[in-house]
Design a protein that fits this description.
It contains five helices and eight strands; from the N terminus they run βαββββαβββααα. The chain has 158 residues and is α/β, with parallel strands linked by helices. The strands form two sheets. The protein has a four-stranded mixed β-sheet, with helices on one face. The protein has a four-stranded mixed β-sheet with strand order 5-8-7-6. A hairpin with a 5-residue loop joins strand 7 and strand 8. Helix 4 runs antiparallel to helix 5.
Length: 158
């Protein structure tokens, strides 16, 4: 069992979120669903918790109330190797009410913050070439969705 599990707080619409999240990446599936009991606070037909994996990583959706709201101080980061994966995930996560931000960040229609990043960007930012790192940083901070080819051009100074 995974020792640390990220819990995402929802106010209803857990079924929709669960179906959406498990459709995003391979090795994603519903593990278990727990409904409220007769003791409440929800009704027995409502989901209280839903455990699932997203790319093999375990998460729990909690059907709470409006007491807590998701915010960008916590985000889920997906590291992609190909532009096509960035494009597909960006489209899926920003559709139906999601909102683009800057530098690969977005908020999905449920209010959960994501970073759709690239392994190439991480490698470039780890370079010992300070000038190349500065160019890449300036480039990605102007982007909403990351463009790997443009980042590579910035890194090379082209």
């Amino acid at each position: 069992m995974q020792k640390i599990v990220t819990n995402l707080w929802f106010n209803g619409n857990i079924e929709e979120a669960l179906a959406f999240y498990t459709s995003l990446l391979p090795d994603s599936r519903v593990l278990s669903i727990t409904h409220y009991s007769e003791a409440g606070p929800g009704s027995p037909e409502d989901i209280m918790f839903a455990d699932f994996t997203l790319a093999g990583q375990r998460f729990t959706l909690v059907n709470g109330n409006t007491f807590f709201q998701p915010n960008a101080s916590m985000s889920l980061c997906i590291n992609c190797d190909e532009q096509s994966e960035i494009d597909a995930l960006w489209q899926a996560l920003t559709s139906n009410g999601g909102m683009e931000s800057v530098g690969g960040w977005l908020t999905d229609r449920f209010g959960v913050s994501w970073q759709v990043s690239s392994s190439q960007l991480h490698a470039m930012l780890s370079s010992a070439d300070a000038a190349a790192v500065a160019r890449v940083t300036a480039a990605f901070m102007q982007m909403k969705k990351l463009d790997i080819a443009a980042l590579e051009r910035a890194f090379r100074g082209a």
